[in-house]
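Section 3.1: Structural characterization of target chains.
Under the original work plan, the team committed to producing a structural model for every single-chain target entering the pipeline before any wet-lab resources were allocated. The record below documents one such target. The sequence was received from the expression subgroup and is listed exactly as submitted; it comprises 338 residues.
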Amino acid sequence: MAAGLLLEIRRGTQSALLVIREADPPSSPVDVSVAADRVEVKSGGSCEAVTLPPEVRLAPSSCRGLRRLPGDGLHLRMCLSCPPPGADLVSTWRESLKPQKNYVFYCQSCGDIIVKDRKLLRVLPLPSENWSALVEEWCCHPNPFARSTLHPQHGDCFLGETFFLINSGSESHVPEFPTCCSETGHHTSQSHSNLKSKENTRVVCKRCKTMLGETVSSDTIKYYVTEVIIQPSNGSFSPKPRSQFIQSMVAQCLVELSSAKSTFRFTLKGDNGKIFILIWLLNSDTLLVESSGSSSSHGVFTPFGDIFMPSSGPVRTWNAVKVLYQPCIKSRNKELHF
């Protein structure tokens, strides 16, 4: 038996859910043994023993509610014998950008340099997307900002919720300019009229052709936080697996937006405004530990079964957010109102 084990810990309640995933339903009874620092699963003549990380300790006497869910495996709830470790205070992409510092912009997909040695004179947060409507509600006179635009000047970096804006003038690019370019399928004489078209204002990486953002105006570029990595000029670029990076950025955005807007409901939209996924944020205090299972009798917990992670080394736990999502594909779920 090569059972995969998942331990989902809630910091707020100091409780845990143990999920034992089975490749195939066992033909013989399954014996689950839980110790403070160890979980064993026996079935037939095989045994899967997993050692917990040192910061996670279970209370075996609190085990309850053992049941099998078809297609998922065995579920067992329990309490912790000691509080779980607090969440690591990792700075978000917003907090990592500082004024009067030099940065290099990289394409996350291939690692190519997009903007080289850009000094950010000002790093300012943008208001929420509905800020103009709020001004109308609070002002007793016409909106004084109706005709103004929030475009960054030279050396500015404006931070949105899922993007950032920089001024495209006087960029210090690497050779083979331009590293980023606006894709157009028309002649130069038509470029002004095509600027408003989403298709013709896409900013792509020259090396891998990944879409990095879009041109907002003649001197402003919007980069998506899921496509571009910003590192200090004196630092080194260390690539991160695409799936791991996307998970991290989406989780950061959900937690920040939930805290700022006091909401737990979100949507993912495409460039055309079409909603693809509905997301409900269930909790953000989850600690995950996982073992993918093996044919050997002993295993250690590894995060998310990620093939990019080293199979050896110290055992670690991982912070996570738990979401419920509903895809909206091919006109499904028309009755859902979000």
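The longest strand covers residues 275-291.
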